[in-house]
Amino acid sequence: MAISCGKQGFLLWPAFHTRESTTAFPPPLSLSLKLPPQSHSKVRRVVKMSATEVTSSRISYESFAIKPPEHPTYDLKGIIKLALEEDAGDRGDVTCLATIPFDMEVEAYFLAKEDGIIAGIALAEMIFHEVDPSLKVEWSKNDGDFVHKGLQFGRVRGRAHNIVVAERVVLNFMQRMSGIATLTKAMANAAYPAYMLETRKTAPGLRLVDKWAVLIGGGQNHRMGLFDMVMIKDNHISAAGGVADALKAVDLYLEQNNLQMEVEASGNVTLDTVHKIGQSGVTYISSGSLTHSVKALDVSLKIDTELALKVGRRTGRA
């Protein structure tokens, strides 16, 4: 167990994390998609997605380069469906319906528009599969790899309509996760030999995704929620009768449960201060800034216009 005493309070939690090697990289992606103009106005189908139609929320993570953290109730597939549904509404993508023949096939590529750590590749595959299992996705990088500005690191082939339907949701997740992973990498390097942790200051509904991005960036996970670790904050101290009484209760809890105590630092941890804190001898450093004020990494998804036109000419659509 570990206990922290900082501006945010005292924290106890199981100490079973492992550390991966880290390398310094610059800070945080944004994505866009350009389509060739179409002159056809055929009637096209609307693809609707509903979060209530989840047939199975169990997902196999065995093939993932870095697996997401565990949560007893979090439904990652359900989150994907909700994100797609809020984008599609009750009509679907009306711009796609107006401009793109439903059966037109294209290839689009992912482009890094700045240096950083890429994250969200495994999640992107899940989103594309949810929209259209026939889409073919290929990557030259894995979650956690460094990408430089101008690098094409992946591509997706299949129906243009379905690629564009998935595009914004894929990019929203990937940009946020990559921003978190990039900052985490920089702070983990600066914090060495201490371990870098995030906090519960995550986007509502995206806690597992945010914490997954921290793992991808080389950090470690703090408590997942209120259920898996003990953290004594100001309200707990007030209810216990003061700091001394709260600490006595903590000591008694540790003794009764035969738990080992380690040291963590928290409160006002930034990229500018984390190195000094890491040299102080603490085991863990937690920072809410990893997730609560993330700068998205700029990434884009571009349809190959030349290929799209060739397909259009061959099928009489261009």
Walkthrough of the structure:
The strands form three sheets. A six-stranded mixed sheet has the order 8-11-10-1-2-9. A four-stranded antiparallel sheet has the order 5-7-3-12, sandwiched between helices. The radius of gyration is 23 Å and the shape is elongated. The protein starts with a strand and ends with a helix. 35% of the residues lie in helices and 17% in strands. Strand 10, helix 8 and strand 11 form a beta-alpha-beta unit.
In short:
The protein is α/β, with parallel strands linked by helices and 318 residues long. The chain is built from ten helices and twelve strands.
Helix and strand topology:
Layout: E1 2-6, E2 9-13, H1 76-88, H2 94-99, E3 105-112, E4 116-117, H3 121-131, E5 136-139, E6 146-147, E7 152-159, H4 160-191, E8 195-197, H5 207-216, E9 230-232, H6 234-240, H7 243-256, E10 262-266, H8 274-278, E11 284-286, H9 289-292, E12 299-303, H10 305-314
Parallel strand pairs: 1-10, 8-11, 10-11
Antiparallel strand pairs: 1-2, 2-9, 3-7, 3-12, 4-6, 5-7
